[in-house]
Amino acid sequence: MQLDKVDLNLLRYLDSLLREQNVTHAANQLGITQPAMSNGLRRLRDLFHDPLLVRTSDGMKPTALATQLQPRVQLILQSVDEVLHLGKKFDTESSTRVFRIMASDYAEATLIPPLMDRLQADAPNVILDVMNPSDVSFHDVEKGKVDIVINRFDTLPQSFHQKSVWVDNFSCLVPKDSPTAKNFTLEAYLEAQHVWVSKTGFGVGVGIQPEEVQKLGWVDSTLANLGHKRNIRLFTRNYNVAMITSKQLGLIVTLPSLATRLMEKNDDIIVLEPPFEIPPVELKMLWSPLLQHDPGHIWLRSSISECAKIIAESNSL
Length: 317
Hints:
Layout: H1 9-20, H2 23-30, H3 34-48, E1 53-56, E2 59-62, H4 64-85, E3 98-103, H5 105-122, E4 127-131, H6 138-142, E5 148-151, E6 161-168, E7 170-175, H7 179-182, H8 186-191, E8 193-197, H9 218-225, E9 231-236, H10 239-249, E10 252-256, H11 257-260, E11 269-272, E12 281-287, H12 295-314
Parallel strand pairs: 3-4, 3-5, 8-9, 8-10
Antiparallel strand pairs: 1-2, 5-12, 6-12, 7-10, 7-11
Helix pairs in contact: 1-2, 1-3, 1-4, 2-3, 5-12
């Protein structure tokens, strides 16, 4: 097989077909018609002398050869993309690009407002579309449909690029006039009622089971290791709801320190250090290898990193 006799666009078709495992979806991803993609699949089958995708009861599935080809094809396309983007710059002043960011409520409340301030000055026509974790799957990010994900993660696919945004400690929001605030010991903490707030990872979550302590996250796992358990009255995935509830109902909220800074000017709430040591939490951003060399994406990642550094330094993290 000679290279000058091969249409290299077929590699783009193959990459999309193996990602989507559906001819129509692959065609939509590349912005071509379904018949054109079907013709591309036929040519690919002739080229490799293999069906590549076969129909099963679970839909189209890749053959053994296609599974071997996929990472190699992706590497070739990434290399070509890198070459084509060499020397190109992102025009921040004129760009009207929409960047889609999946951010946890914690990341959105602490990072997005100052990031938007920066973008207003540097890229006045760029638009951010911020989604929550239940809107997005790993597959969406892998295909480049979502530009960047900012959250805390227990596990990550090895193929994704990632970078630390910041490392944050924990603080407690405590009603100022409560007896707990005057004597904030571990015993007082355990006797009080609490709000649980968290959302990590991707996809639609499931309901919390209070007895499953190890699934509740950093705070409750740490307490469990000390032989204790807190009295949680409210489970929420929204940091603002958690903080408002602390003020209105007198509940304690234990959450990353940068989030508690949002309530520092509230006279009804005080911010205290937890009466036990909680391991710090790391906020990360990750993105698809398909976007690694895109000039606009490089600019956005740099803007997020620079903004996050200023936030972290100003709060002495």
